[in-house]
Amino acid sequence: MSELFKVEAVGSEKYTLGEGPYYDPRFKRLSWVDIVGRKLLFLKDGKKESVDLPQQVGAAIPLAGSDGFALAMEDGIYLYKDGKIDLFLDLKNVFKDYWRSNDAKADAKGRLWFGASVGDDDHEAEGNLYLYNNGKLDIKVADTKISNGMAWSADKKKFFFSDSLKYAVFVYDYDEESGSISGGKVLFNVEDGIPDGLTIDSEDNLWVAFWGGSRIEKRSGKTGELLKTIPMPAKQVTSCCFGDDDMRTLYITTAATGLEGEFDGCLFKMRTDVKGVKPDYCLV
Q1: Tens digit of pLDDT per residue, the chain (284 long)?
Q2: Which of helix, strand or coil describes residue 167?
Q3: b (16+ CB within 10 A) / e for 264-277
Q4: Model's pTM, two decimal places?
Q5: For residues 222 and 188, is the Cβ–Cβ distance under 8 A?
Q6: Cα–Cα distance for residue pair 68/219, rounded to 1 Å
Q7: Shortest CA distance to 217 belongs to which of 206, 204, 201, 233?
Q8: 8 A C-beta contact, residue 253 and residue 267
Q9: DSSP summary character for residue 164
């Protein structure tokens, strides 16, 4: 039997809201977060480790020139280095008091993109997608619902963005030098489940996780056409990334929120027939 697209759990541990997987080839290390569990998690040499955090954490982006991370948390961007957590960018006067940071990515220039989302169940979904660059913070997409997956095309001329509760993945024209985006349009709409985190492969196709959809979809980055559906043994599929030495293993996070299935909240992996792209690091 072929090992391609055979999904397997990486251990039996469950995470309340697993998110933001990132494979760092410099250290052969997978990292991800448990947003609600307030943990930064690692998988290296088959061993899992975790760091307890003082707040909910939307994403952890590895830093350029370091084995540390930029942590997108409730009230700011924090840096985790040498076992210490320090505030880097205070967002208390930027975020509403019921917002928190959600998904985040670094682009090829080391700039930090991150979303703000409602952090409770008492308010309607709202937020913005931000870009932090060299001391300046800009809103790149205003009035988002839940800012989630982000990716860039190989030629750095397209930016892909999942706004989950608009039930769509969007594509924008992208200028790499300035970080500007324009001409946003729907790449594809979603009717079954909610588009969550995503990654891109070396052929410019998107791999999209579906919250409430029990699946990963491979979609054309050019047309949005559905190319492949990979069923998952967990309902709330949150995000994915490519990893391992050949960048052909897809790691997938899920959430156990309100669920009791055998695999809900587990970390998964599967071998694919395509390489992922070289990851980008946060330069702060």
Answers
A1: 467 899 999 999 999 999 999 999 999 999 999 999 999 999 999 999 999 999 999 999 999 999 999 999 999 999 999 999 999 999 999 999 999 999 999 999 999 999 999 999 899 999 999 999 999 999 999 999 999 999 999 999 999 999 999 999 999 999 999 999 999 999 999 999 999 999 999 999 999 999 999 999 999 999 999 999 999 999 999 999 999 999 999 999 999 999 999 999 999 999 999 999 989 999 98
A2: coil
A3: bbbbbbbbbeeebb
A4: 0.97
A5: no
A6: 32
A7: 206
A8: yes
A9: G
Token pair of 237 as six digits: 């599929």
Question: In 3D, which of 168, 167, 170, 164 has the Cα closest to residue 238?
Answer: 164
Structure tokens at 179: 């970080």
CA distances from 276 to 47, 161, 204, 250 (A): 23, 18, 9, 8
